[in-house]
Design goal:
Layout (H helix, E strand, L loop, with lengths): L1 H4 L17 E3 L15 H8 L7 E7 L5 E7 L5 H6 L4 H18 L1 H8 L4 H37 L2 H13 L11 H9 L8 H14 L5 H11 L3 H8 L49 H10 L13 H9 L1 H5 L4 H7 L14 E3 L1
Helix pairs in contact: 2-6, 4-6, 5-6, 7-8, 7-9, 8-9, 9-11, 13-15
């Protein structure tokens, strides 16, 4: 919220552009999406690799003399390859990275030939002039080729395809071919009992949490059985029990108490488990669409109801409604409706709602 306060004021927004919008949501809005495996490059790096302090990663590589070397790098906006690939699905990335690297070598034949020792005198002169930039770029290519190779290796070693297919079936309520997911418990038992896969305890815990969220609870005796089957320690079992604080059913057949709300609004979006997934990626392990996407689309089109998402700072909406240039900036119609509310109406909207800043 402090950072949001540093954004340009509504009256300072650029002409023809909408003012900045900050959606404030309760964590109970969507407890499912953070548990699912995401297979875009950046998400996999942070999920599967030891990244420190948000962007520091140390990797090993083989030097020119065949020795094993270690280097710490920063995975941030200063790396053009990281910017290019970080939101790409790993299946697409493995193909595109290889093609782009080969194109890079073709565009730098003189330096590449010099580095390999296969260059005549004229090629050596041209290669030497470009060598510093070439070596810097080669370091980046080496890093990302190493990263992608390690991610693919861990994807296979940890059995993430099987885990993700079950996660997606439970989250979407159907298999990739559209058949209803009718046996999630049996499928989960089978997956957890597979000793041939080096599945991490965290992945097993995530699978159990996805099951609890999507199946609206679990019977106590089944929960104890799955804990033992997955080898989840008592101190880690608390993570599942804490789903209660996100308004998730823990015991099948029982409804958790509703948190106090200003009022009981109609849901702004459909529940995650019943939402029809959008298969933009085209991959069976990435079918589920987080409900936040639908919410953001409604916010952009001005369709969020101000009763469910009231302004937390109504004076901004009021000033926007009073200034003609804000209409030209594309301020959504519900923003002016929010300005008509009394100041005391602004605030958080409870478990399923939120606020606009």
């Amino acid at each position: 919220l402090d950072r949001a306060g540093a954004l340009p004021a509504v009256e300072e927004a650029a002409s023809g552009a909408p003012p900045p919008l900050l959606l404030v949501l309760d964590r109970a809005f969507d407890p499912l999406s953070p548990l699912l495996h995401e297979f875009t490059y950046q998400a996999m790096v942070h999920d599967l690799l030891p990244v420190a302090e948000g962007d520091r990663y140390r990797y090993t590589y083989v030097g020119n003399s065949g020795q094993s070397l270690s280097k710490e790098v920063l995975l941030n906006e200063a790396d053009p390859l990281w910017l290019r690939y970080r939101h790409m699905h790993i299946a697409d990335l493995t193909v595109e990275l290889d093609a782009d690297y080969k194109a890079f070598l073709r565009d730098n034949e003189a330096s590449a030939g010099l580095a390999s020792g296969n260059a005549d005198l004229s090629e050596m002169a041209a290669g030497l002039r470009a060598m510093p930039k070439f070596q810097e770029a080669m370091g980046r290519w080496s890093l990302h080729i190493s990263l992608v190779s390690e991610l693919v290796s861990r994807y296979e070693a940890f059995g993430l395809e099987a885990a993700a297919l079950l996660e997606q079936a439970m989250a979407c309520g159907s298999s990739p071919d559209g058949k209803p997911c009718t046996s999630p418990l049996a499928d989960l038992r089978s997956l957890l009992a597979d000793d041939a896969t080096a599945r991490s305890p965290i992945d097993a815990l995530r699978l159990l949490m996805v099951y609890v969220v999507t199946q609206e609870g679990i019977k106590p005796e089944v929960r104890r059985e799955l804990f033992e089957l997955a080898g989840i320690q008592p101190e880690d079992q608390v993570a599942i029990l804490n789903l209660f604080h996100l308004n998730v059913n823990l015991t099948h057949g029982l409804k958790p108490p509703k948190p106090p709300q200003r009022k009981q609004p109609e849901p702004a979006v459909e529940p995650a488990a019943s939402a029809a997934p959008v298969r933009e990626s085209g991959y069976d392990v990435s079918r589920f669409t987080p409900p936040l996407r639908s919410l953001a689309q409604r916010a952009l089109s001005g369709e969020l109801p101000s009763d469910d998402f009231p302004y937390m700072r109504p004076h901004l909406a009021a000033s926007a409604a009073a200034t003609p240039t804000h209409e030209a900036a594309g301020l959504p119609s519900w923003a002016t409706d929010a300005a008509a509310e009394p100041a005391g109406a602004a605030g958080g909207g409870g478990g399923g709602g939120g606020g606009l800043g």
